[in-house]
TrEMBL record:
The keyword Magnesium applies. Its cofactor is Mg(2+). Keywords: Magnesium, Metal-binding, Nucleotidyltransferase, Transferase. This is Glucose-1-phosphate thymidylyltransferase. Coiled coil: none annotated. Residues 3-236 form the Nucleotidyl transferase domain. It comes from the Bacteria. It comes from Thermostaphylospora chromogena. Signal peptide: none annotated. Catalyzes the formation of dTDP-glucose, from dTTP and glucose 1-phosphate, as well as its pyrophosphorolysis.
Amino acid sequence: MMKGIVLAGGNGTRLFPLTSATSKQLLAVYNKPMVYYPLSVLMSIGVRDILLISTPSTVPVLRDLLGDGSRLGLNLSYAVQAQPRGIAEAFLIGADHIGDDDTALILGDNVFHGAGLPELLRHAVETLDGCTLFGHPVSDPGRYGIGEVDTAGRLISIEEKPRHPRSDIAITGLYLYDNEVVDIARRLVPSPRGELEITDVNREYLRRGRARLVRLGHDHTWFDCGTPDSLLAAGQYVQFIEKYQGERVACLEEIALRMGFIDAETCYRLGSGMAQSDYGRYLTEIAYALG
């Protein structure tokens, strides 16, 4: 079994003044709150037990938005990260939630989409042995954690924001780990800024020979919506896909229906409650089509 964690913390300072009075994860990416997108990824790989970690002021708002998840056939719980002390702190905050299971951690401002992506991710879950990371080519590798692979495609190094990058493959904000990740996180030495770095977790798995990098192809799209430009680009991308290709991106109710988390009657009822919106009308149509 795999548990999910959405780390939706931080102060979103790169998005000021947009985030001066609201959480980054509640901003709109086209027609849905940003947090819908990482949730949709976890749902699409079959994860139903999900912990959302955020700031003291944002947790109540997320709970108001998503509730306990039961309407989507999920079990959602919430925890506070009082200060932004690094991504890897999520494993300490979520240790009881993880229990004896594997875990999928996704950052709350990451948007993933592409042909066959759910199938690729589900295969990665089924074949997990240690740590699986997902890489995507970027034009500015100095801004990211970068994975270097050998000629056989094996991961051989991870470098954080390198001055002289050895590749253009950025480590995205989706990570799969076996249950050892909690103990590894507990033994981390904080950085000079007092943070528990996710790169140190990944390097420990690499040292043990149990870290794997899955490269997302050019038909897969990834956005880190941490800046105004990337937030706008993600929204424009979703708008294009939905308006001109007729596919809904991160429609949680539809994913829940297709994954068998809810039935068509429930999906129809959820859509009827939003019948004045295009989103709600779409849900009633898809419930009828798949019912």
